Amino acid sequence: MKSWININEDSDFSIHNIPFGIFSVNGSGERMGTAIGDKVLDLRAANVLGIFEGIDVPAEVFDNKYINDFMALGKSITNAVRERIQAELCDESSVLKDNPNTFYEQSRVTMHLPVEVRDYTDFYSSIEHATNVGILFRDPENALLPNWKHLPVGYHGRASSIIGSGQPIHRPVGQTKPPEGDPVFGPCRLLDFELEMAFIIGRKSELGNRITIDKAKEYIFGMALFNDWSARDIQKWEYVPLGPFLGKSFASSLAPWVVTMEALDYFRVSGPVQEPKVLPYLAYEGSQNYDVNLEVTLFPDGGEETVISESNYKFMYWNQLQQLAHHTVNGCNVNVGDLMASGTISGKDEHSYGSLLEITQAGKKTLTLNGGEERKFIQDNDSVTMRGYCEKDGRRVGFGEVTAKILPAKL
Ligand code: CA
Questions:
Q1: pLDDT tens figures, 233-281
Q2: How far is CA 329 from the centre of its chain?
Q3: If you measure from the C-alpha of residue 198 to the centroid of ligand 1, how many angstroms do you get, rounded to a whole number?
Q4: Beta bridge partners of 191
Q5: Which pLDDT score, from 0 to 100, does residue 137 have?
Q6: For the CA atoms of the chain, what is the radius of gyration?
Q7: In CA terms, which of 65, 161, 236, 321 is 20 to 30 Å from 155?
Q8: Backbone dihedral region of 18: left (phi > 0), alpha (psi from -120 to 50 degrees) or beta?
Q9: Interacting residues of 52 by C-beta distance below 8 A, sequence separation 6+
Q10: Domain definitions of the chain by residue range
Q11: Phi, psi values for residue 97, rounded to 5°
Q12: 158, 201, 227, 148: which is closest to 328 by C-alpha?
């Protein structure tokens, strides 16, 4: 496939990608778009030009604040739309070529939260992360709890505080417990990010019906970068015995572009060997991990941006199909717009750790940034950005970025 649009070789948004998102221009209404090279194609306008003729797609889905209604049309429609966009962007005689006003520079548009998130589940599926946290919080000899290799551990997160990229966050305040003395109230002092990827549900299931592992793929629309912000001091005091609560629910940042599973299929790789053998409902066939290069940067106000982690989504011990099969095995239903996050994605070596908790060993080590600043955790006015892309045989499909700045606490 070769597009008539000029696309840089290192662009996340090649003709092989065609992600979906929501954008606006100069305060005009939100609508659906796709990213191609350094441009956004206005799908509402493209539809008016008739490029989706013959596909049963209602115009309203493009004139929308979220991509949920589009996803709900089902893969037979959404894949046809995506393939038609690819065909038009390759066809020299396309009506889009005669209508350059259907394209905008990405630098000139405002991107919005792409999905109205119904329910948010956070897994804990990186063995390196779970091991590192187990060593720091519990017992170095038995870092993984007995259940960890038998099921994809997860918890129900908070959907209302999932925000779009670029939206700043005030440092959370809450209750923490100093090593000595009584609990205190105040701003979080150990603010952290978690490098994660989310998959988005595009098809609903019925209460009482499980999604078997061989059908799980039909329910997953696509993926996006996800930063699951964490207040480590609040988390440490509150999490026993029911798990994370206010230390997590103040905000999570979701990237603007949802990359379809069809675009990612080319980058599937085999996952780690699972030993002990999993129960039959979690047994899967084929290569079901994805090779996504990931990075995290920290950018102090007025300073220099520094890459502080380079990881890869392929390291996940539990894959998406296992996560979804497990999630629904008890009859729990899913809805269009549900978001399932991977859990922090850490690799084996120190430079691939997906949180500051691991990078600084809970503050025992100091991280020195390119501009000379030192960090143990995130300070006010720091920005954290995550980027990710797949690349194989000269084909690149990327996720863009998810970024947010931390503002001082509101007391
Ligand atoms: Ca998390």
A1: 999 999 999 999 999 999 999 999 999 999 999 999 999 999 999 999 9
A2: 24
A3: 10
A4: 231
A5: 81
A6: 21
A7: 65
A8: left
A9: 46, 81, 84
A10: 21-112, 120-407
A11: -65, -30
A12: 201
The alpha carbon dihedral of 359, 363, 366, 372 has a sign of: positive
CA 84 to chain centre: 26
Phi then psi dihedrals of residue 44, to 5 deg: -65, -45
Q: Assign residue 3 a region (left: φ > 0; alpha: ψ between -120 and 50; beta: otherwise).
A: beta
Distance between CA atoms of 390 and 167, rounded to whole angstroms? Answer: 26
From the CA of 135, how far away is ligand 1's center (Å)? 17
Residues 6+ apart with CB under 8 A from 178: 184
Dist. CA 390 → ligand 1 center (Å): 22
| Alpha-carbon gap, residue 54 to 61, rounded angstroms | 16
Distance 123 CA to ligand 1 centre (A): 7
**Looking at residue 27, what is its pLDDT?**
87
3-state SS of 200-262 is: EECCCCCCCCCCCCCCHHHHEEEEEEEECCEEHHHHHHHCCCCCCCHHHHCCEEECCCEEEHH
Diameter of the chain by CA atoms? 74
Q: SS3 for 70?
A: helix
Q: What are phi and psi of 80, to 5 degrees?
A: -65, -40
279 Cα–ligand 1 center, Å = 25
Which pTM does this prediction carry?
Answer: 0.98
Distance from residue 244's CA to the centre of ligand 1 (Å): 9
Distance 196 CA to ligand 1 centre (A): 7
Q: CATH assignment of 120-407?
A: 3.90.850.10
Q: Cβ neighbours of residue 139 under 8 Å, at least 6 residues apart?
A: none
HSE-CB for 78 with a 13 A CA cutoff: 29
pLDDT, one tens digit per residue, over 189-222 is 999 999 999 999 999 999 999 999 999 999 999 9
Best CATH choice for the domain 21-112 from the list 3.40.50.2000, 2.30.30.230, 3.40.50.300, 2.40.37.10? 2.30.30.230
Instruction: List, by residue number, the catalytic residues.
Output: 129
Residue 85 phi/psi, 5-degree rounding, is: -60, -45
Pairing of strands 169-170, 395-407: parallel
